[in-house]
Amino acid sequence: MKPVQIKICGITNLEDVRVCLETEVDMIGLNFYPRSSRYLEPEQARAVRLAIDKKAEAVAVFVGASPDEVRRLADQLDISSVQLHGDYSPKVCAELAREFRVIRALPMTAEFRPEEAAAFRECDVLLDAAYEELHGGGGERCDWNKARLTGSYARFSLLAGGLTPANVADALGAVSPDAVDVCSGVERAPGMKDHDLITQFVAAVRGAATSAGERMP
After folding, report:
1. Which distant-in-sequence residues (6+ apart) come within 8 Å of 95 by Cβ?
2. Which domain does 139 fall in, by range?
């Protein structure tokens, strides 16, 4: 069984990068949505990107940006993974997937059907709660049952939405994602991570994975 990967999203400063790297998370998300409290100006993002280096996978997070904007900023910062929230068609995602690892965010709305994920076969999918404006990071838990069913249509699934050190083990058991993505669940304020909570979250994910491995025949 492959270990569950860990993504910490909404990183805004070098100290938070340091803790993420010390705890050996797999992915670090940088937010380029101007309306977000975790938004990074390009110059600020450059310093954060340099600190990440190749020690973890940097993921550029966009909401509604044009494909050209995605390409320009990702190339400018030497980021090969992009996360897309908003109205991105399967065709646009497939085109970007020729150049980047694309993580397509799919909000688990009441109307969403799990099989819709199959349209994004060239992408990984992020299973998240549905938000009116925030497009993530609001601490709302998604429908774990719908997320589990959606994950079966994806080549690689990341579970997000209201995850914390206290509930992530239950989430792993209910959804069985390939990775978990946390933002507000390890913060003391928007854009400012709580280093103890990061450490606890990582330990909870790895402990749950170890326990699951021990139970396997």
Report:
1. 67
2. 5-215
Contact (Cβ atoms closer than 8 angstroms) between residue 160 and residue 32: no
Compute the distance between CA of residue 99 and CA of residue 82 in angstroms, rounded to an integer.
10
- Tokens linked to 79: 């980021």
Active-site residue set: 9, 128
The CATH number given to whatever domain includes residue 114 is 3.20.20.70
pLDDT digits (tens, 9 = 90+) for 63-119: 999 999 999 999 999 999 999 999 999 999 999 999 999 999 999 998 999 999 999
Ramachandran bin of 78, using left for φ above 0, alpha for ψ from -120 to 50, beta for the remaining angles = left
The pLDDT > 90 percentage for the chain reads 85
Domain count, the chain: 1
- Per the CB < 8 A criterion, the answer to whether 12 and 44 are in contact is yes
Taking the C-alpha atoms of residue 32 and residue 39, their distance in angstroms, rounded to an integer, is 5
